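User: quick one, sequence for these tokens?
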């Protein structure tokens, strides 16, 4: 009878250990075997909790099924507490059990420095003004009036650049003595435009391409002055300062970044920077500056045009409602 009673107790302990081991090590090992991946699939903590709870309930039902079962299960515990297995084992047991329990409680409650488990939302939008969704970059598709005005200014040699560039361009004109200030932009569409300008016959398409070249030129220069230290020459998020941030500037050349957002959203992010983001943009705060404080709206749009061009990406097209 004594033997049988001990058996019941140890069966309960063994069942708990086997179920625990099967979930803790068995399932990951099985997942590696099935998927042939070099790493096990993660087993959620809740799965362990549920299975252990179900096992405990089943064992409780089994043990309390009848008076005898319960008696058999409790017998070794009673014997142990009464000193039936010797006083020294009992003393050790009575010290170890509270110590282990205390250690577990301490381990659970002690404050720890841990990485937050929440994933960061890369494009938080809870405070993004809906009306900005339909915004278009005014420099991406210049109007006929803007193109005609550009042609006029080019004809009279009075092309205006953003203020940050004027000093350098003036110095370059002085030193190089070009026929036209737009020769500062030595790209094919600009050459075609300047050649047409000489003949006096400029069509709008040639001028549009040249105007976009000029905007990109300004945008790239502003990008190099303001954004490059963090976002890098190629917009890959690898500027000289990038390593200094916990939240690294992301790689714009990656599909999944600026390609997946409408340009109005990009404008909003550039305008308001890290400080303008809602709480779900944490746990790591973005070091992105608030550019509305130091760049005009025109400058910000020009940079954005250049940014997409450098990254060789196009913004997402806003959905029509
Ligand atoms: C001090 C470093 C720093 C500078 C300078 C900086 N950025 Fe950022 N930028 C960041 C960081 C950090 C992020 C956050 C990355 C993220 O959200 O994953 C960011 C995010 C962005 C995003 C949002 C990307 C997305 O997918 O939501 C855009 C767009 C952007 N920057 C453009 C610019 C432009 C344009 C400039 C220059 C006018 C600039 N940045 C200058 C650090 C910088």
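Assistant:
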């Amino acid at each position: 009878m004594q033997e049988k009673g001990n058996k019941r107790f140890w069966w309960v302990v063994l069942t708990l250990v086997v179920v625990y081991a099967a979930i803790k090590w068995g399932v990951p090992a099985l997942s590696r075997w099935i998927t042939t991946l070099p790493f096990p699939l993660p087993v959620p903590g809740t799965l362990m909790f549920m299975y252990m709870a179900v096992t405990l309930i089943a064992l409780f039902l089994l043990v309390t099924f009848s008076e005898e079962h319960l008696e058999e299960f409790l017998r070794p515990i009673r014997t142990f507490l009464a000193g039936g297995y010797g006083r020294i084992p009992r003393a050790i047991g009575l010290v170890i059990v509270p110590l282990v329990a205390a250690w577990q409680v301490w381990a659970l409650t002690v404050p720890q420095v841990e990485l937050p488990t929440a994933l960061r939302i890369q494009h938080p939008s809870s405070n993004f003004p809906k009306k900005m969704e339909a915004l278009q970059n005014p420099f991406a598709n210049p109007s006929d009036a803007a193109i005609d005005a550009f042609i006029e200014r080019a004809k009279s040699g009075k092309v205006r650049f953003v203020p940050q560039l004027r000093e350098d361009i003036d110095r370059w004109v002085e030193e190089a003595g070009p026929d036209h200030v737009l020769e500062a932009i030595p790209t094919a569409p600009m050459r075609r435009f300047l050649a047409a300008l000489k003949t006096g016959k400029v069509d709008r398409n040639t001028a549009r391409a040249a105007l976009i070249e000029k905007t990109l030129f300004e945008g790239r220069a502003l990008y190099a002055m303001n954004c490059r230290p963090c976002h890098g020459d190629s917009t890959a998020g690898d500027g000289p300062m990038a390593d200094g941030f916990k939240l690294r500037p992301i790689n714009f050349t990656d599909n999944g970044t600026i390609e997946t957002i409408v340009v109005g959203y990009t404008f909003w992010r550039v305008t308001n920077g890290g400080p303008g983001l809602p709480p779900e943009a944490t746990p790591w705060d973005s070091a992105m500056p608030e550019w509305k404080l130091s760049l005009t709206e025109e400058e910000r749009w020009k940079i954005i045009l250049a940014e997409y061009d450098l990254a060789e990406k196009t913004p997402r097209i806003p959905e029509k409602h």
